[in-house]
UniProtKB/TrEMBL annotation:
The protein, known as: Putative GDP-mannose-dependent alpha-(1-2)-phosphatidylinositol mannosyltransferase
Keyword terms, alphabetized: Glycosyltransferase, Transferase
Organism: Streptomyces afghaniensis 772
Record bears the keyword Glycosyltransferase: yes
Domain Glycosyltransferase subfamily 4-like N-terminal intervals: 14-173
Length: 387
């Protein structure tokens, strides 16, 4: 099958949607399919062989964050050329409502289109206001996928229609087989995310840290991600700042080693999350997880069975839960066991097969319609009516 996948966000700025698309493309390539991914990227950015650049992206505020998107006449021309050259059996667009390549592709494409909706935003005025513009494009979509029940709910409430829920995927064994790193072990709490994006929750964790260190002064907080490190620790008393170690951006391999090494992974995100891929990665690596009780996080953690939850933005509750878990190796071992079993449902062997089934359904439907039209045309040319 010839598969075209559209990524709305800049390929050279890491994020959950980009990682999902990358892993999905590589999963299908391993199965023998031909895959091409169209994504915004600077023209001098090294790209995998299967990625085609649609040109440089620009930063745009989107869903409580700043997304790097691509839109305009040049982008539209690159979309049309990519569609023409690809002659795809199916086109898979991610975030088709964002002002980026997905919407341009919806307008230009012919044939079966599958769309995945990642965003969870129950009060999106922009999406409601843009409905009239989006409607014509959305009507061309053959099948809709939502990565969680909360992304599905956003779609239904704002745009109508429905979607099948297929979660984000993870290569579970990649994380499970990573080697721990000795320097990241030993009473460590881990956080991965953009440091200067408030909704990722690092400020909440920083507010909780003094209370954690008051009980467990030997604990270290390891932070991986880009952002202003000095600003991140400004709220901490000077004598506690040495207990925070910033690792900067880490490779996929080091992320897996990081998650295999820490005693506790904390996800203090405050909102705007439709899934929580980092939770799945942490569980895959065997890290006990403590997360804010966002609806999407609660679903990923099996309502607290596969990881513990604390009230969103409550730094005291976070600190109390973290201390309790760090003091209880038995409970952490229980969470590791439950998380490792629960996470198998998110492995690409399951998720990829479900997405491929959607592709096969829409392409079979398109083929049936084309055959019916061809046959109807033949009967018409013969001057005969079909029963």
């Amino acid at each position: 099958m010839r598969i075209g996948i559209v990524c709305p966000y800049s390929w050279d700025v890491p994020g959950g949607v980009q990682f999902h698309i990358r892993d999905l493309a590589e999963y299908f390539i391993r199965l023998g399919h031909e895959v091409s991914v169209l994504a915004p990227a600077d023209d001098d950015t090294p790209l995998p062989q299967y990625v085609v650049s649609a040109g440089r992206a620009v930063p745009v505020p989107y869903n409580g964050s700043v997304a790097r998107l691509n839109f305009g006449f040049l982008s539209a021309a690159r979309v049309r050329r990519w569609l023409h050259d690809g002659a795809f059996d199916v086109i898979h667009i991610h975030e088709p409502t964002s002002p980026s390549l997905g919407l341009l592709t919806c307008w230009a494409a012919q044939g079966p289109i599958v769309a995945t909706f990642h965003t969870s935003n129950p009060r999106s005025r922009a999406m409601i206001a843009a409905y009239a513009i989006l409607q014509a494009a959305l009507e061309k979509i053959s099948a809709r996928i939502a990565v969680s029940e909360y992304a599905r709910r956003t779609l239904v409430e704002h745009l109508g229609g429905d979607a099948v829920v297929i979660p984000n995927g993870v290569d579970v064994d990649f994380f499970a087989k990573a080697e721990p790193k000795a320097e990241w072990q030993g009473d460590t709490v881990g956080f991965i995310g953009r440091i200067d994006e408030p909704r990722k929750g690092l400020p909440v964790l920083m507010r909780a840290l003094p209370k954690i260190l008051a009980t467990r002064p030997q604990t270290r907080l390891l932070v991986a991600g880009r952002g202003d490190e000095k600003e991140a620790v400004e709220s901490l008393p000077a004598e506690l700042r040495s207990r925070v170690e910033f690792l900067g951006m880490v490779s996929d391999e080091d992320k897996a080693r990081f998650l295999r090494s820490v005693d506790l992974y904390v996800a203090p995100n405050t909102g705007g999350e439709s899934f929580g891929i980092i939770l799945v990665e942490a569980m895959s690596a065997g890290a006990p997880v403590l997360a804010s009780d966002l609806d999407a996080f609660a679903q990923v953690l099996d309502r607290g069975e596969a990881g513990e939850l604390f009230p969103n933005e409550d730094a005291d509750a976070l600190a109390d839960a973290a201390v309790r878990l760090l003091d209880d190796p038995g409970r952490r071992a229980e969470l590791r066991e439950r998380g490792s079993a629960h996470v198998r449902r998110f492995d690409w062997s399951t998720v990829g097969a479900d997405i491929l089934s959607v592709y096969e359904t829409v392409t079979a439907g398109a083929a049936a319609v084309a055959e019916d039209e061809r046959t109807s045309g033949l009967w018409g040319r013969l001057g005969l009516a079909r029963d």
